[in-house]
UniProtKB/TrEMBL annotation:
Protein name per Swiss-Prot or TrEMBL: Phosphoribosylaminoimidazole-succinocarboxamide synthase
UniProt-listed PANTHER family: MULTIFUNCTIONAL PROTEIN ADE2, SI:DKEY-6E2.2
A Pfam short name: SAICAR_synt
Pathway(s) served: Purine metabolism; IMP biosynthesis via de novo pathway; 5-amino-1-(5-phospho-D-ribosyl)imidazole-4-carboxamide from 5-amino-1-(5-phospho-D-ribosyl)imidazole-4-carboxylate: step 1/2
Gene encoding the protein: purC
CDD domains associated with the record: SAICAR_synt_PurC
The SAICAR synthetase/ADE2 N-terminal domain, residue ranges: 6-235
Coiled-coil region list: none
InterPro entries registered for this protein in UniProt: SAICAR_synt/ADE2_N, SAICAR_synt_PurC, SAICAR_synth, SAICAR_synthetase, SAICAR_synthetase_CS
A GO MF label: ATP binding
Biological process according to GO: 'de novo' IMP biosynthetic process; cobalamin biosynthetic process
UniProt-listed Enzyme Commission number(s): 6.3.2.6
PROSITE patterns referenced in this protein's UniProt entry, alphabetically: SAICAR_SYNTHETASE_1
Species: Roseisalinus antarcticus
């Protein structure tokens, strides 16, 4: 489709003006970042894989009646989405100890948590996306208590869906993060899952071997990120026919 006005560019995606009011075109880039963009690379084919995988997961949510911003995929790198008012929080759901949680609490990675734990962090790269308690969120007006209750219910439903899908293909859903946006109909708001759901925003481990199929491969120099994401797509049956394989990323100076 014809290129439209750029609305926003983030680390992994670009948002363009959509063809109709209330819509946007979301473009998936090949850029990979870690440690608040201190480590950066271009990994050919990553955007194609994430576009397909996010389409798969968002479509699954829609089929279960879980509201989200996805409308349809447009091509290999773009999808049409509803324009939403993003709540400035990252919603993190943890099933197994890993990453910053394990480091923060002095836990070994891989410990099954007694129940899914939901955390909130403020979306602010300059501050390192700090964890924030619910008291901060309501006090500063980022979301109301009712919003938080609804967001938690959304997150739990997404976790149930994602955990089941991944278990079915031999992958453990360790943790993931989502963003939530508001869609307004007059004075009435509806909260929906926004942004993306892909290996960029999840930790995914092979159930049998513990092999990582997520961005930790890039963070920790564990091999080819393209291979890891391709394996997830292959197992889910959504492998794009012309995704490009590139064993070595191109570092950005």
């Amino acid at each position: 489709m014809a290129r439209r006005k750029k609305i926003y560019e983030g680390k992994a995606k670009i948002l363009y003006e959509g063809p109709e009011p209330g819509t946007l075109v979301q473009y998936f880039k090949d850029d990979a970042t870690a440690f608040n963009a201190e480590k950066r690379a271009v990994i050919e084919g990553k955007g194609v894989l994430n576009n397909r995988l996010s389409e798969f997961f968002m479509t699954g949510l829609t089929q279960l009646g879980i509201p989200n911003h996805f409308i349809r995929r447009l091509n290999m790198r773009e999808q049409l989405i509803r324009q939403v008012e993003i709540i400035p929080l990252e919603v993190i759901v943890r099933n197994v100890s890993a990453g910053s949680m394990a480091k923060r609490l002095g836990m070994e990675e891989g410990v099954q948590l007694p129940r899914p734990i939901i955390e909130f962090s403020l979306k602010d790269d300059k501050l390192g996306d700090p964890l924030v308690p619910e008291e901060y969120i309501t006090a500063f007006g980022w979301a109301s208590q009712q919003d938080l209750d609804d967001i938690v219910q959304l997150a739990i439903r997404v976790n149930d869906f994602m955990s089941g899908v991944m278990y079915g293909v031999g992958i453990k859903l360790v943790d993931f993060k989502i963003e939530v946006g508001r869609i307004w109909d007059g004075d009435y708001q509806r909260l929906v899952v926004a942004d993306e759901i892909s290996p960029d925003s999840c930790r995914l481990w092979d159930i049998e071997t513990g092999a990582k199929f997520d961005k930790d491969v890039f963070r920790r120099d564990l091999g080819s990120l393209t291979d890891a994401y391709t394996e997830v797509a292959r197992r889910l049956g959504v492998m794009p026919s012309n995704a490009t394989h590139m064993p070595k990323p191109t570092l950005i100076n």
